[in-house]
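Exercise: predict the fold of this chain.
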Amino acid sequence: MSQQDQPIKPSKIRSAAMDLLTGREYSRAELAKKLDKRFEGHESIVSVLDRLQREGLQSDERFTEAFLRSRLYRGHGLARIKMDIRQKGIQDDMLEAAVEQSDIDWFALAREVAQRKFGSSPATEQKDRAKRMRFLQYRGFNFEQIKYALNSSGIDEPS
């Protein structure tokens, strides 16, 4: 009897899940997807994930906080973060709770991202200003934050 013919035990699924979780935090949905792929939708996956959550080894809240920190470090705005985290199976209310706890100044972050990308020289042409606006919009900042970022730091103030 080869190893592939042996039945898959929940302990093997748990071991695979633990291996994944040692690298970084995963959302439950993300972990389920990876385990489904590896163990072809085995019926024990849900019970293994439930147990990991009960034991505090997998936590969507912890994942959300870590994801938020990593995206803030990359200079992403709320709209981009929301879009990306939804793909990881996290609901908006969980993200909103993490955002509320972290007390982020989105305007200052947008200004910092703009300065890092474009320096402090103002955009002299409309084409350059539009390019900067598109960049910040892609990063997930709203219009008010973009306007603040481009005007408050002297980047785009008319000379």
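Check your answer against the key: Residues 60-102 form a domain with the Arc Repressor Mutant, subunit A fold (CATH 1.10.10).
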